[in-house]
Amino acid sequence: MPFVPVPKDLTRVKTKVAFNLTKRQLVCFGAGGLVGIPTYLFSRASLGDETAALLMIGLMLPFFFFGIYEKDGQPLEKILKHFVYAQFLTPKERPYQTNNLYAALMRQAEYDKEVSKIEKPKAAQAEKEAGSRQTPVSKGEKGVAQYHPSDAR
């Protein structure tokens, strides 16, 4: 009985479109052919066959690399983008900075103390003002204190 190996990680399995090539490989190889073959045909009369063939190979090689090369699941253009970003676009010296949670908690405690110092006098002042604005409560029937909303003005 024949055995067929089945990969455990199905995310790495690529669907083949034609000639056992993926769509990406077909597009890249087609673009390479569109660039390389006319170059060879138009330059072999003036440069000679060998030189024209080497020029054609040199022009088609990047397209083949973009179609085939893949590292850690990333195609070549992503790898080149990360390389250019790391080498040329970011600063060379990156100082090490920690996110000190204890220092953040200490700063927050200081802010809370400062806020409470500011709020205590204001709260006392507000209570003092509210106490002076209270209207006297009138006694109603049977000596029970009654409050009417119009007294608050």
From TrEMBL:
<feature type="region of interest" description="Disordered">
    <location>
        <begin position="117"/>
        <end position="153"/>
    </location>
</feature>
<dbReference type="InterPro" id="IPR024414">
    <property type="entry name" value="Uncharacterised_PrgI"/>
</dbReference>
<protein>
    <submittedName>
        <fullName>PrgI family protein</fullName>
    </submittedName>
</protein>
<keyword id="KW-0472">Membrane</keyword>
<keyword id="KW-0812">Transmembrane</keyword>
<keyword id="KW-1133">Transmembrane helix</keyword>
<feature type="transmembrane region" description="Helical">
    <location>
        <begin position="26"/>
        <end position="45"/>
    </location>
</feature>
<feature type="compositionally biased region" description="Basic and acidic residues">
    <location>
        <begin position="117"/>
        <end position="131"/>
    </location>
</feature>
<feature type="transmembrane region" description="Helical">
    <location>
        <begin position="51"/>
        <end position="69"/>
    </location>
</feature>
<dbReference type="Pfam" id="PF12666">
    <property type="entry name" value="PrgI"/>
</dbReference>
